[in-house]
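Open question from group meeting: does this chain pack into something compact, or does most of it stay loose? Before anyone orders reagents, we agreed to write out a predicted structure and look at it together. Recording both the input and the output here so the notebook holds the full record.
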Amino acid sequence: MAHEDNLHEQLASLHSISVEIAGLHELAEIHDRALGYCLELTDSEFAFTGLLHDTNVGVVASGEIEVSDEVMDIAAIKGFSASPDFYRSFHLMALRPSVVGVVIKENRSYISNEVEADPHAVGQPGGHPPVQKFLGVPLRLGETVIGMIGVANKWDGYDAGDERLLATFAGQVAVAVDNARLYERQRLMIAQLQELHDRLTEVERANLLSRERQRIAGALHDRLDQEIFMIGVRLNALLDSGVTDPRLVEELQELRRLSADASDELRRAIFSLTGGELQGSVSEDIRSLLRDLQRRSHVQAHLSVSGTPTSAAETLHHAVHAVVNEALTNVSRHANARVVLVSLRYEADHLDVAIQDDGVGAPQFVLRTFQDSYLHFGLRHIQQMVIDRGGSFTVTNGEEAGLVVRASIPLPTQQP
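Structure tokens returned:
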């Protein structure tokens, strides 16, 4: 029971730490916060993070260096105050089969509780605090090592439990480091795009934006989506391992639900990024959405159109698509409905759209709080989009059954 209590505390701690680290964008802050937690999690005296000096240099799973220039940059240290001269002299480390280097060269964790007698020991530079005990784990992105985390001088030595805990945390740190690098590259690219803005035609800007959205969506799918998937797999494995503590089971199930929700929202963002240009008119697009709904569900879908379409109304195509698509997604997932009706009304100065189903509706507290709730990202997003265009947006239960989503969006003012 004591072991399960400890495991429960460690999982809860790792979850809260990982959420905090994932929310950071600056590398320096990530390193500082991560090392502070490394010291706390392992009861160590000091810790460091090292990153391969060339961001294109990596160690594949076989343990072979992809290029010959094997250099690691000690990106951050915590627990001892290195003088500026010491850091300038020793922050770039040539990777040899030392107690530290073996972690990256062999792509594995390494524990040494008697560093001076360790067969890999090669000595320490002058001014470096004595290292008696050491634990190092790789920082991996998929199958590639981008660096490592090292901790030193736990008073009673490191064991397999310390290694598993630090290796699990290192996986989250590696993702956070990679995200920060992506974020920095995005900031630089946005600055470059701003400089080009005045020299690009409207078509060129649209093409550039489309390519960039595809690239960002690919990075999100290939990195973050896979990491979230692996978190879910590991949580399932823990739940299937025979854990009997009800508190721990409940916590693991909640973490699994959160990882599934995170995956859903990430895929929603990826879909939004890769949606591409919409084809046809507003009404043709809505008919296409309704046909898709009928193909994948038992719901009967109908469209009612009134008024006269105009070119000004067509400029709201993306906004109307987003509102209808989100509402239909909720119908297919939550409404338990048999029929859904989409009404599109063209007026002289605005466009109205309403989506009504005959399902179970929504609890009153959801209707009251979805505007401020992070559990209802889709509704919040389309409401804000409509309001940003000067329109109005409401979600109510129908008089007899189901849910009614209404949006009224003003047409853009025609320029003389």
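Observations to bring back to the group:
The chain has three domains: 2-177, 200-273, 282-410.
Residues 200-273 form one domain.
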